[in-house]
Amino acid sequence: MLKIWRRHTAACPHRARGRDVLKCNCPLWADGYVDGKRVLRQSFNTRDLARARKKAVALESSVFNLIFDAPLLRRSKGGHQPFSSSSRACSTK
User: Fold this and answer.
1) Domain regions of the chain by residue span
2) Please, which pLDDT band fits residue 83 given cuts at 50, 70 and 90?
3) Is 29 within 8 Å of 43 (Cβ atoms)?
4) I need a labelling partner for 85 at 20 to 30 A (CA). Which of 39, 46, 72, 91 fits?
């Protein structure tokens, strides 16, 4: 999971309130966490929150592919079939 935050400049009035305050024009960064441990810290090289969110989605999917070997998790052409055709259906009597 990626957490977007602002790296406040020295002159930013929101600096004292912490990095989770997104209502300024300071540069945007992201931290990536897996099982509660930070595995990634990266600058988005933008100050635009919408652009940063798009980059976060792309980055999250690429990191997911590297960490969890996503080709094994993708759907087959027929899609997922949770039950075989021979499984018994629940019936009420």
Assistant:
1) 2-71
2) very low
3) yes
4) 72
Residue 29 pLDDT greater than 90, yes or no: yes
Cα(81)–Cα(88) distance, rounded to whole angstroms? 14
Q: Facing residues of 38 across strands?
A: 33
What backbone phi and psi angles, to 5 degrees, belong to 13?
Answer: -70, -15
Token pair, residue 72, equals: 């094994």
DSSP state of 29: E
Contacts of 54 (CB under 8 A, 6+ apart): none
pLDDT tens digits for range 35-59: 888 888 899 999 999 999 999 998 8
* Burial of 15: CB neighbours in 10 Å, binned 0-12, 13-18, 19+: middle
55 φψ region: left (φ > 0), alpha (ψ -120 to 50), beta (else): alpha
